[in-house]
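Design job #97: recover the sequence.
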């Protein structure tokens, strides 16, 4: 006697998995899915793909970066359940929306599916690079040291944006200029995320910049970094695109956001304010990559 699975049950299970994956990744969408898909769009415009091919490429790219961040968040949240009870009590492993065993099974599945899909898109090397970084971060201790955490974020930008460009067209010097500039910027300034998590990081003995060097010196360093950031963004990203009004307008907006962050990290303190500052960093990153659509064409 054979049994069949009702289509409705299959759809229900699929929808539950999609919804659960969103709960795992939703807090990181502004650093992965949205900005990386913007860079895919920039590559599509640069390569002058026809509309039908462009639509398929963008959907395929968005799915790739969904898996990209899903692997990260599963691995990250599996090793940080106790910390999340303090810092991020809304996450699925804390609320009980996913069991630890279920998350491990999903992580194993994504670790197989992600590189296979990357191979299909022609970006296998970048998918494997991201997986190696994830293993170093979550399984081999990088995530417990401030330097490893910052390198993970910065080198992760290279794995992310190089894949976004190469799934569309061959890498160009201009694309590399964007990737390297943003990777260095993120490496130097990503410790802004640690300001909001000091209590939980101290509880699990994680050595973040605020805990190693002190909160005040970290804030001063980030203040200086965000104040100087507009010079690098202008020189390496905006100026080469020419003196067009829309380039100048974007330059001014990005500069304004960076200077606002420079003030916020020293004046707006406390968990809630630091969380808002980090969200502003995410929006700055997304806006910068949205600008690549018309600066790299």
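Job complete. Output follows.
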């Amino acid at each position: 006697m054979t049994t069949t699975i009702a289509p409705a049950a299959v759809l229900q299970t699929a929808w539950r998995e999609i919804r659960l994956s969103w709960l795992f990744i939703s807090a990181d969408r502004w650093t992965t899915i949205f900005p990386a898909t913007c860079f895919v769009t920039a590559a599509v415009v640069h390569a002058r793909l026809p509309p039908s091919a462009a639509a398929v490429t963008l959907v395929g790219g968005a799915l790739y970066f969904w898996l990209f961040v899903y692997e990260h968040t599963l691995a990250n949240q599996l090793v940080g359940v106790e910390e999340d009870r303090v810092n991020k009590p809304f996450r699925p492993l804390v609320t009980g929306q996913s069991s630890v065993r279920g998350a491990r099974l999903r992580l194993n599945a994504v670790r197989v599916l992600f590189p296979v899909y990357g191979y299909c898109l022609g970006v296998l090397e970048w998918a494997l690079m991201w997986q190696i970084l994830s293993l170093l971060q979550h399984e081999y201790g990088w995530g417990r040291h401030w330097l490893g955490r910052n390198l993970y974020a910065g080198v992760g930008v290279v794995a992310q944006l190089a894949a976004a460009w190469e799934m569309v067209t061959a890498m160009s010097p201009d694309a590399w200029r964007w990737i390297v500039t943003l990777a260095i910027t993120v490496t130097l300034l990503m410790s802004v995320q640690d300001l909001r998590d000091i209590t939980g990081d101290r509880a699990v003995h994680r050595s973040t910049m605020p805990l190693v060097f002190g909160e005040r010196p970290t804030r001063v360093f980030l203040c200086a970094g965000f104040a100087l950031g507009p010079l690098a963004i202008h020189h390496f990203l905006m100026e080469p695109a020419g003196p067009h009004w829309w380039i100048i307008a974007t330059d001014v907006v990005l500069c304004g956001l960076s200077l606002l962050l420079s003030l916020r990290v020293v004046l707006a303190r406390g968990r809630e304010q630091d969380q808002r500052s980090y969200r502003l960093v995410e929006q700055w990153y997304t806006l910068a990559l949205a600008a690549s659509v018309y600066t790299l064409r």
